[in-house]
Amino acid sequence: MKSVIGMGNALTDILINLKNDEILDTFKLPRGSMNLVDSELQRQIDASVADAPHTLSLGGSASNTIRALARMGASTGYIGKVGRDETGDFFERTLNELQIAPTVFRGDEPSGRCVSLVSPDGERTMCTYLGAALEMRHTELTPEIFDGYEYFYIEGYLVQDHELISNAVRIAKERGLQVALDLASFNIVEENLGFLHDLVDRHVDILFANEQEAAAFTGEKNPLEALDKIARKCSIAVVKVGTRGAYVKYRGRVDHIGIMGNARRVDSTGAGDFYAAGFLFGLCRGLSMEQCGTIGSIAAGKVIEVVGTTFDEKVWEEIRRMVGDVETGNYIL
Ligand SMILES: Nc1ncnc2c1ncn2[C@@H]1O[C@H](COP(=O)(O)OP(=O)(O)OP(=O)(O)O)[C@@H](O)[C@H]1O
Ligand SMILES: [Mg+2]
């Protein structure tokens, strides 16, 4: 079976259950928002919730995708940068436990982390501190890192460093890997339009975009027209349209793949990340576009049923069983 190495902002997610919303008022954090914070604000927030119960998990868009791929049974690797601290140790240890081959660099800043403050009613307010993740440089990447993999997956959130992405993708292509990119967010697309077009034209084989990102990238509001435009630039174009599923265009043919209809949405965090994981898993197994999309929908449908992006082994067993059924043609959406 083929294998995937991912690269992204290496973040550790810290989920904190709040007794009340006082801290949100104190730090003027709008409920439900995502805030980029500096180390000082992060430290103050940490100090004021030090007594609240919390859990740690591997976070970051690409690392979510790689983690899901590993849990489905793919062989995987991950490239990222953390600090020389306990959070960084946690990140690297967790990759090892999941049998994800780590290429984890250590920087001078503290490890990047995303603190999710969960209000008593379930609303989540996020504070993201990128820290050492921002220190990763293209000069740290060597061709050997990519040896033995067939696909290279990158998250759009990395666009802060154009040189890093360009060089990583160039090395991966030289080593014969296919490159997959998720556009991450429409504002990222708008702010880096020229760079992203050039990258996709030259190096990207598989592009994942949601409806808004596809519109920002192509200027076409209609997802099918956006899909067409994207498909002229790369080999496999995937445009996700939320509860309406996704469109895939490959070799001139368009497939529409629906959603896992019985999913009970609790929190959509990770839907896109897990969709990419399922899709890439199908590609690794040499399956059809329809089967790849179906596995994407299954993985996404499962992650939206939980708060956060982790669930227990029982659910992974169920996913692996469903994926097996997709492969044998016994599961069709
Ligand atoms: N309510 C839902 N029920 C079932 N499946 C869903 C639902 N919402 C989304 N999905 C699945 O998740 C996939 C990806 O969702 P979406 O189109 O929102 O991507 P995204 O915006 O990239 O997600 P994210 O916000 O996680 O980055 C969809 O194509 C679909 O298969
Ligand atoms: Mg997304």
Automatic annotation (TrEMBL):
List residues traversing the bilayer: none
Question: In terms of domain of life, where is this protein from?
Answer: Bacteria
Q: Which InterPro entries match?
A: Carb_kinase_PfkB-like (IPR052700), Carboh/pur_kinase_PfkB_CS (IPR002173), PfkB_dom (IPR011611), Ribokinase-like (IPR029056)
Q: Do you know which SUPFAM superfamilies this protein is assigned to?
A: Ribokinase-like (SSF53613)
A Gene Ontology MF term for this entry?
kinase activity
User: Could you tell me which Gene3D superfamilies the record lists for this protein?
Assistant: 3.40.1190.20
Write the record's keywords in alphabetical order, separated by commas: Kinase, Transferase
Which residues belong to any copy of the Carbohydrate kinase PfkB domain?
55-312
Q: Does the keyword Ribonucleoprotein apply?
A: no
Q: Does the keyword tRNA processing apply?
A: no
Q: Family, per the entry?
A: Belongs to the carbohydrate kinase PfkB family.
UniProt protein name: Adenosine kinase
Organism encoding this protein: Alistipes hominis
State the organism's lineage: Bacteria, Pseudomonadati, Bacteroidota, Bacteroidia, Bacteroidales
